[in-house]
Design goal:
This protein is of the alpha/beta class. Helix content is 42%, strand content 9%.
């Protein structure tokens, strides 16, 4: 009886690793749990390494600050099939030295997020552009090391780019952004926020070349004016969302046609803003017949 029960016992690690455990179980576990499992036994360590070698998505956003750079290098040293890589919370330790080998051996990457990675340099962006020809989504927010030459390299080699976030990339000026707009015609989402160098020239070039644009963030672009917003309304019929908060030269005269198309705009109409201010002063919202 005991022998029969022993024969019927099946342990987790007895299941086929690459056919069952990796694609159907481990892929649903958060990365921090996988890292913990590595410490259980030598067998679990080997299993997790098999998973990391074959995983398509590697997201450190939840545990980035606590991951030693040596562990990062070890976890991805054999992976050549990554499609998505997120390093947005790894600013304290990630540098070109850790990232360049990973980029070089993963030419199928479609999504890369390096937002706020202040320890990187333009060499990482050039490496992405040269190695990842199928790149579709790129996060570079608050990467002040992004310059005109590296962005041009990206535009030259990644024409299929669909979204890019270059918020607060303050080295970039109109010439680089216009160049990207002419090369990356499939852009659907673009953030140029918090860059005082961005003018109407950039916005108009984006509008005229990226006709499928759906989301545009111009928050804090102080030199953007009504002229380019009107061009945006004319050339981008698929636009769904526009952010122009703190764009003091953009007024309701250019935003109203977009509102009538149900484009979501982060700035309230003047009357609505006035009512909110009045409510703050009076303590209640007065009734106003808007149909008069």
């Amino acid at each position: 009886m005991d022998e029969e029960a022993q024969m019927q016992t099946c342990h987790l690690l007895d299941l086929p690793w690459e056919d069952v455990l990796v694609p159907h179980i481990l892929c649903f576990l958060p990365l921090q749990h996988l890292v913990s499992l590595q410490r259980v036994s030598m067998q679990f360590h080997s299993l997790i390494q098999v998973y990391l070698t074959n995983c398509r998505t590697f997201d450190l956003s939840s545990i980035g600050p606590s991951v030693p750079k040596e562990a990062f290098c070890s976890m991805l040293k054999d992976n050549k099939v990554l499609h998505s890589l997120c390093l947005s919370s790894c600013s304290e330790w990630v540098t070109d030295k850790e990232l360049l080998p990973v980029i070089g051996q993963n030419q199928h990457l479609q999504r890369v997020d390096m937002s706020s990675c202040v320890g990187l340099t333009r060499h990482s962006l050039v490496a992405v552009s040269l190695s990842c020809m199928h790149l579709q989504h790129l996060g570079l927010a608050h990467c002040e090391w992004v310059d005109s030459l590296s962005l041009r390299s990206l535009a030259d080699h990644c024409g299929g780019l669909q979204s890019i976030n270059i918020t607060a990339c303050r080295q970039l000026k109109d010439d680089a952004i216009c160049y990207m707009a002419k090369k990356c015609l499939k852009l659907r989402s673009l953030s140029l926020a918090v860059n005082a160098n961005v003018t109407d020239e950039s916005v108009e070039e984006v509008a005229k070349n990226c006709r499928g644009l759906e989301q545009l963030d111009l928050t804090g672009c102080l030199r953007v004016r009504n002229q380019s917003i009107r061009t945006l309304a004319e050339y981008c019929p698929k636009l769904l969302s526009l952010k122009v908060n703190h764009c003091h030269n953009v007024t309701e005269s250019s935003l109203d046609p977009l509102r009538k198309r149900n484009v979501v705009i982060d700035v309230e109409p003047p009357l609505q803003r006035a009512l909110v201010l009045l409510q703050d002063v009076l303590g209640f919202a007065p009734f106003i017949n808007l149909q008069i």
